[in-house]
Design brief:
Helices cover 45% and strands 13% of the residues. The protein is of the alpha/beta class. Helix 3 crosses helix 4 (128-138). The radius of gyration is 18 Å and the shape is elongated. The model is unreliable at 80-89 (pLDDT under 50).
């Protein structure tokens, strides 16, 4: 009887983890005033861009930082430098780094160059936990203030996400990338 009860508890715990797996990924802070909005590229670029433009339009930041393009743009001038192609990895970073980590390192470098110390990071809802984990490692020293705001223009895969192939790919990919981040940071 104990074995059966233990098996049921394990199955229920696993089912609970599966159902709530996306919830851990969907990290979000309320927006607050910052020097810059940092925009991450990716498949949902239009939705992310819409959120970044909205935040700047609402007066939350003066600059738009697009680390993948090495650009810092003042508010009101954010239309021209945004293209749809995703650039290749800068050659001076180790191959083990994944692109989001490189974008966060580049964002810090660009912000430091302009003397900016606060940022709102904008990406897809399912990317926000990983972005926060990486940013907390890159933006250290207590002089930086970071806020994490997912785009509201993209559908999230909550609820019965495990019935949708695209949501399964997003969630499993994010957990894999989080695991990889924790592994390769010790390989440097």
């Amino acid at each position: 009887m104990r074995t059966f009860t233990a098996a049921v508890v394990v199955i229920l715990a696993f089912a609970g983890l599966v159902v709530y797996a996306p919830s851990y990924l969907f990290y979000a802070d309320p927006p607050r005033r910052a020097d810059a909005v940092v925009l991450f590229l990716g498949n949902e670029y239009r939705e992310r861009k819409a959120e970044a433009v909205k935040l700047i339009g609402e007066g939350y930041a003066v600059y738009l930082v697009i680390p993948a393009y090495g650009r810092v743009v003042e508010a009101g001038k954010h239309g021209d430098p945004m293209r749809n192609a995703v650039p290749s990895r800068p050659s001076h970073y180790p191959v083990v780094y994944e692109d989001t980590h490189i974008e966060i390192i580049e964002a810090k470098r660009l912000m430091d160059g302009k003397g900016l110390t606060s940022a709102i990071f904008v990406s897809s809802p399912h990317h926000m936990r990983r972005i926060k984990l990486i940013a907390d490692r890159v933006f250290t020293g207590g002089t930086y203030h970071t806020t994490f705001v997912p785009t509201r223009f993209e559908r999230t895969g909550e609820g019965f996400w495990f019935f949708h192939e695209s949501d399964i790919k997003k969630v499993t990919s994010e957990y894999g990338k989080i695991l990889w981040f924790f592994l390769y940071r010790w390989m440097k």
